[in-house]
Amino acid sequence: MTYAKKVSEILPLMRNIENIRNVGILAHIDHGKTTLSDNLLAHCGLLSPSLAGQARALDFLEEEQNRGITIKTANVSLPYKSENQLYIINLIDTPGHVDFSGARDQSLRVIDGAIVVVDAVEGCMVQTEIVTKQALEEFIKPVLFINKIDRLITELKLPLKDIETRLNEIIQDFNNFIELYAADEFKEPWRIEVKKGNIAFGSALHLWGCTAEEMLQKNMKFGDILKLYQNNHSINSFNQIRKHLPLSKSIFEIITRYLPNPRQAQKYRIPNRWVGKISSDIGQDLLECDSNGASLLYIYKNLSDKNLGIISIGRIFSGTLEVGQEFFSLFSGDYGKIQRLFLYMGSHRENIKSLPAGNIVAFTIKNPKIGDTLVEREYEDTVPFEKIRYETEAVVQYSIEPLHPRELNRMMTLLENIAINDPNLKITVNKETGEILISGLGELHLEIITNELKKQELEIITSDPIVTYRESILEKSDLITVKSTDSQNSITIQIEPLEPQVIELLTSGQLTIKISKNRRKKILQKFTDWDDNLIRKLIYLDSFGNAIFLIQKNNNFEGKDDIPLMLYHKIEKIFRFGPLIHDPVRGIRIKILNLSLQSETSQLNLFDSIPLLKQAISRAFLSSNSALLQPIYQIQIKTLPSYIGVISSIIAQRNGKTSQVEQKGADIFITGQIPVKGTFGLASTFRSKTSGHIFWQTFFSHWERIQPESYMKKIIQELRIKRGIL
């Protein structure tokens, strides 16, 4: 069946909101997400059953196929018939590798349910907890698929009783995540239980799976599956199990029976992820997922197309999207018309003319931004969705330049185009040194970026990987006063560490200068002991985790709007390039105790305060026991028992530490922490010392002060010389 015919069949179904499911597949890397996706596509006729588990149909990028990992989120709309009801499953396969977690984080905004895949041998891993936590915090309902049951039988050769014990352990671990991270009202309803039917067991590789209820209906027991594997470990035995217990049917039944439709989900998701007035007209449209209401959609992904430019993918939360419809961007303030609409079927897309609320759609519009909320132009005063909170930070950099200087503008254009599609790629140009830096989540992330440039036949030179540090202080500074050269302007400040809970609110995007003052006040009253008087004096916040208060009496800002946007960006630049090594400043509170300008009412003269503020912060850092913070990864390693000592020694040599060693089947899992700097070149060392018998992942954990002080000062001195800082 052609994709065009498939689209023509499913379009009418996409207008029945009760039978739509927006679902993501989440898992630790290599637990079987994409293999499961292949199964579901094969069931719907979009992939040959003989290729399911091998085709990686939703990994349509060359890099994904070559590396065997999912890098970008891929989506497809699948029809499914159950008990004379026709459903549309808008399915999203997400990356498991932490270096591409930004794409996964964004996709969570547009799905309502998640299939969390867990390897039966490895169980719930670090990344399993991270993705489940994120889903629950986005009010996404999970179901569980325990994959690779065959490994328990063929590799570990466990008896039936031990298999049951192992599965119960995984279920308990997963329910612990729900207890920890789900909202109180969902802790019990969303709990995973065999008798509920919201959990499936199976082998995506061998194409079989079932719930306990399905096994009873087929008059089968788990022991029957065990015997088939033990007595006849062949393709024929797999086919027998698959014939009675097809995996795709089991997963589709769980999706349609236990995961919510868009209208059901938006009733509890909108009040928790959209801060506008629910009682307003558009608030009610969103709550009801009303296809006849005001149109509002959220962009979670951009793709580059050589013919069409940027193709955006997003979810329609209310209204009906049509070609030619005009929208207002709540991110940029620009207007733009929908030029084309598509449905994506993996790497294939088909043109459509319109699509109602509740669906995921691809479209073209000028200047699209990931994370943007688009509304009809008459609703341009609408509040956008809350900013997505990323679990990881860009902590690795490359210095990059073209081999031929004449290609500089082209290189910058290509990087900016890649950044449109990649929410975690940061491009920084140090105007003082001319150095161009690209920052990402890890070495693999940046390797993919540089490969994209090389595919465009651009020859580039990159530095060795560079750690991104944070500059901070450990104690309150003295009062610092700085005057202009003509003594007409002056500023007096004092800086001190900002409370950890406020830093978390700022760096996670829960608290920003863009939200209303009333909303900001409510958040700060909830999480801090700041009084109303102090909150009123707050004039600046940033995503690095810094805040400025204008304390002096009768200041121009108290009770009024925030500082002008241009002035805000000037101040932000001070914090982006700190005084120690020109890395971002993190976690400081600045009190401006006196600001004396020639004309306090002149906005132009306010800019005269910027160099004074920069000088004052530099002096304060020197007088307040400043610190350099380094990023720390949590590391999880899978290897053989004979390599425990070797691996622990390597981690220790790189200033890391091992916290846990656990055996699961024939494999050993080592968990620990290691500075990001200690991971550079780690892959080749691990492979050479273990003869390749190792698999490992790192996850950003926290920022940590570099000690001892003598070592920190050495790093600062080396970096200042290298970066040309006088």
Topology overview:
Elements lengths: L2 H8 L9 E8 L5 H11 L18 H6 L6 E9 L2 E9 L7 H7 L5 E7 L6 H12 L3 E7 L1 H6 L5 H22 L17 E5 L4 E3 L1 H6 L4 H10 L3 H10 L2 H12 L3 H12 L7 H8 L7 E10 L3 E10 L1 E3 L3 E4 L5 E3 L2 E6 L2 E5 L1 E3 L3 E5 L8 E4 L19 E7 L5 H14 L4 E4 L6 E5 L2 H13 L4 E3 L3 E2 L2 E4 L6 E4 L6 E8 L2 H8 L9 H11 L4 H5 L1 E5 L3 E5 L14 H12 L11 E9 L6 H4 L2 H15 L2 E14 L4 H10 L3 E8 L2 E9 L6 H9 L3 E12 L3 H14 L4
Parallel strand pairs: 1-3, 1-4, 4-5, 5-6, 27-28
Antiparallel strand pairs: 2-3, 6-7, 8-9, 8-17, 9-16, 10-15, 11-12, 11-17, 13-14, 13-16, 18-20, 18-21, 18-22, 19-20, 23-29, 24-25, 25-28, 26-27, 29-31, 29-32, 30-31
In short:
34% of the residues lie in helices and 28% in strands. It has 726 residues and is of the alpha+beta class.
